[in-house]
Specification:
The structure holds 2 protein chains of 2 kinds. By secondary structure, chain A is an all-beta fold. Chain A has no helices and 12 strands. In chain A, the strands form 3 sheets. In chain A, strands 2, 5, 6, 10, 11 and 12 form a 6-stranded mixed sheet that branches. The chains are: A mainly beta, B mainly beta.
Chain lengths: ~110, ~120
């Protein structure tokens, strides 16, 4: 079946460091891929998405490229801020009706 | 910006009691979803709902669970007889067309604690 695997956290970085959170997926067909973010005490917010191979999603300095050959959708940011501290979820959706299948989440903590 | 709302934010109940979690999806959206997140675990799909009927449900969504759209705005999740293992954060979401490229917009969640 379809699944998503994320790197385990927590990830602790200093402000302005480079961030990579790895995400790989298993799916039949051509899924859409998403990164959601959950700030402390809040719900899930869409961070970015890509709907076909080689698409790059970007938002708020975060980027991720849909790589079909490596079945990956790694999240990157060049310079993290304290305000980026949150839990990041990689997810896929593969068919009409669009249920999301989530990875386990990666907690990011950015220190000043 | 339109948003999905959920009430209550926190519900405490005794094992065996019925609970109803409420959601107001974004008004022009056609697909509605419930997910849950047990503390420290993945966000898991429970059920999707379209055109007043269940579109898809997971193995978790057994006979103890039901969903309803009682009026033009609310979308509810009922757990008939709660168990300790139902303790989790429950998220409602909605999307415009339900396609796999569509964005799902999530509410802030209801934390259910079963004692």
């Amino acid at each position: 079946g379809n699944s998503v695997t994320q790197m385990e956290g927590p990830v602790t970085l200093s402000e302005e460091a480079f961030l990579t959170i790895n995400c790989t997926y298993t799916a039949t067909g051509y899924p859409s891929l998403f990164w959601y973010v959950q700030y402390p005490g809040e719900g899930l917010q869409l961070l970015l998405k890509a709907t076909k191979a080689d698409d790059k999603g970007s938002n708020k300095g975060f980027e991720a490229t849909y790589r079909k050959e490596t079945t990956s959708f790694h999240l990157e940011k060049g310079s993290v801020q304290v305000s980026d501290s949150a839990v990041y979820f990689c997810a896929l959706s593969a068919h009409q009706g669009g249920k999301l299948i989530f990875g386990q989440g990666t907690e990011l903590s950015v220190k000043p | 910006e339109p948003e999905v709302t959920q009430t209550p934010s926190h519900q405490v109940t005794q094992m065996g009691q019925e609970v109803i979690l409420r959601c107001v999806p974004i008004s022009n959206h056609l697909y509605f979803y419930w997910y849950r997140q047990i503390l420290g675990q993945k966000v898991e799909f429970l059920v999707s709902f379209y055109n007043n009927e269940i579109s898809e449900k997971s193995e978790i969504f057994d006979d103890q669970f039901s969903v309803e759209r009682p009026d033009g705005s609310n979308f509810t999740l009922k757990i008939r007889s709660t168990k300790l293992e139902d303790s989790a954060m429950y998220f409602c979401a909605s999307s415009e067309q339900g396609g796999h490229t569509d964005t799902q917009y999530f509410g802030p969640g209801t934390r259910l604690t079963v004692l």
